[in-house]
Amino acid sequence: MQSKSRVTSKEKKSVTYLHELNSEAAKLNLPNYVKEDAAAIMKKLIVSGLARRIDKYALVVATLYYVARQHRLPIQYQEIKAKYGINSSLLWDAIERVQMVAKSTSPSYPGVIGAEGTTKGPSPLDYITMIQNKTELPALIVPKSAEIVDILYKHGLTSGKGYLSIAAASVYLVSALLDHKKTQKEMAEALNITEVTIRNRYKEIVDALDIEVYL
């Protein structure tokens, strides 16, 4: 009975980490399927020993970030980094550990991470609804913005550019065309990006599609 009642250190660690993971997932409003996949990865991190010698909080955040991106949820590396105050080297270390486990956990997680902390995740289209919600623009903005982004994507005009900024510029353009105006400053503040970034992408879109906008 004494033997059966003993709890291993890994089991204790698993309970602690999973509690933290569920708590942070709730704060980020992540769906249950993200929490479930993240929990499976977290357990493997602990069992494999990859949860050792690294900040617990960073590992939890990295796991949620990685899984959310794989499910094409528009969660940003810089936003996560700023929200939790984790430095780049620590967060990268955590993401790399998560990636190692994720590759062996599910074939649907290729684990491709780009130079700026991006994984194979959202396209510009995936950001549009999020932007519409954050900027409190009417829902009719979404289909027209998606149409513009789709044209840009098909013609290779999104290559090498940040997906969030392309989506933001498209929403900004459509809001102006449909007379639901938001300033570039309002858009930038709502999305935590710079006005210059939106302005540059906006000019590129207008020039590429030969659109005239009278503001």
Short structural description:
This protein has 215 residues and is mainly alpha-helical. It is 67% helix and 0% strand.
Structure description:
With 215 residues, the protein is mainly alpha-helical. Helices cover 67% and strands 0% of the residues. The longest helix has 19 residues, at 9-27. The N and C termini lie far apart (77 Å). Mean pLDDT is 81; it is low at 107-120.
The average pLDDT is 81
Q: What is the N-to-C order of secondary-structure elements (H for helix, E for strand)?
A: HHHHHHHHHHH
The main pleated sheet reads as: none
Count of extended strands? 0
Shape: elongated
Whole-number radius of gyration? 20 Å
Instruction: Label the structural class.
Output: mainly alpha
What count of helical segments does DSSP give?
Answer: 11
Describe this protein with a few key phrases.
11 helices; mainly alpha; elongated; 215 residues
What's the topology here?
Layout: H1 2-5, H2 9-27, H3 32-48, H4 56-70, H5 77-84, H6 88-105, H7 124-135, H8 141-154, H9 163-177, H10 184-191, H11 195-209
